[in-house]
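Please check this today:
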Amino acid sequence: MIPERVTVALRGLDGPVCAYVYDPGVLRARVAELRRALPGVTVCYAVKANGHPAIVAAAAEACDGLEVASGGELALAEAAGAARIVFGGPAKTEAELAHALRLGATVNVESTLELRRLSLLAQRAGTTAAITLRVNRADAGLPGTHAMTGAPTPFGVDEAQLPEAVALARSLPGLDLSGWHLHAVSNNLDAAAHSAFLAEALRWSAETSRRLGVPLRTVNAGGGFGVDYAGNAVFALDELRVRVPDGVELVVEPGRWLAADTGWYAAEVLDLKRTHGRWFAVLRGGTHHFRLPAAWGYDHPFTVLPMQRWDWPWPRPEVAGVAVDAVGELCTPRDVLCRGQRVDRLRVGDLLVFGRTGAYGWDISHHAFLRHPEPDFLVL
């Protein structure tokens, strides 16, 4: 179902319609739900999920802080007035690190070379860098669509090399090591498994800190709360349980789960055509706006929003009771958002509205390909 407020916003646009509709209130409500499930846990929104200024501003207000992974996201967090910033990512430049120091951000350090760079920059600035070490543990410890640890990836310090990295961090001036960053996977739907992961992250952090002589103050478990785009599975918050030891701050960095339901992507049907036995709804839009279905190889469901206007002097093309492929305007057969979804009735000029597009929709898409106009962005 499309919320009435979204329908009203879309019907007010001139055609051909192509638009994202964002509702920051959905994110605020999600943050409140998460706080009830994990009382006392620090919540930082992962800006990479959706960097629209209205979404970032809502997250800065509702969350404890923002997690960023680039200089551009640092600037967004600064503009939003974030009370706290956590800066991660494997390829931080000197300018980005210096910016993070000026903002007082906590840096999730990815390597021994980054430790050296940050120490030198902190000395030059006459300050101390708040850091955690990101660890690529031997076991990811969670199911999910993208494993960040427990595998050969560019993320974090190999767990086997951690003693050397800690020794270096403690020897370098200008660094304040408070603990560990343990983000493991993306898009995990098993909340019970996530609860176990949080407990294990706390246990491992305490044991490792004792062994390596690090006074433990911070355990950053990253994000990974999942969203089922094509089915009915839910990340069940009531299955989350965590007991945080006194004197330790547990940080989580959800992005997808907080932002997905803030967004709807709508694209007008420009043509209906049948080739080699299949019906195609050709849209004013496509994967250059919403790349996730093509990137992940799934079919994102849509809802038909009927539009009454028809100004052409010929009968309006339509289909009824058939399965259609929703495809975009790009010159590639991979520009597909959904395959084989049955429609009761669909006409040229109607809108296909794709829900749950508020996270990793516009932000990961290849906007410049073919130089089509960008969609409208409506904020409720």
Q: What stands out?
A: The longest strand covers residues 263-275. The mean pLDDT is 95.
